Amino acid sequence: MKCNLGQMGPIGEDLVSLVVMVLAIATLLIALNTIYTSYVVRNAELDMYRTAWITADKLSTEWAHTDSSNVTHSRLLDPDKICKNCPSLPGYGLNLTVIDLREKKRLCSCGSSFSNETKIARIPVALRFDYTSVHPGVIELRIWRR
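User: That's the sequence. What structure does it adopt?
Assistant: Structure tokens below.
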């Protein structure tokens, strides 16, 4: 009996082409999933940064110093207004810290403990303690999805 080892036959050739097609489709699906996932993650990170910046800027306006003629000076913070009520956002975790850069001390900190997926927004502000004493400071807001 003569065996020809060089040929696969019709069933073997169909099986090889089927395996090649399955591998090609799997590779295509993996590539599409990677592209879509990176796009979604990048947009989610940008959304978190935007939310952090807007929240920190809103807080700097809420805590701003108002002079005797009822003019509000944004980013010139009144220490009596800082951290009176800790902000919260639905769907996000927040941790807020106000730092006096001249004294190198933390004036207040509120919020929950943060996770590894935290995005940080730092906004420079001025801290007005009295008419002659103004210190540089920072509002540091950490944000993450719950």
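Helices lie at 10-62.
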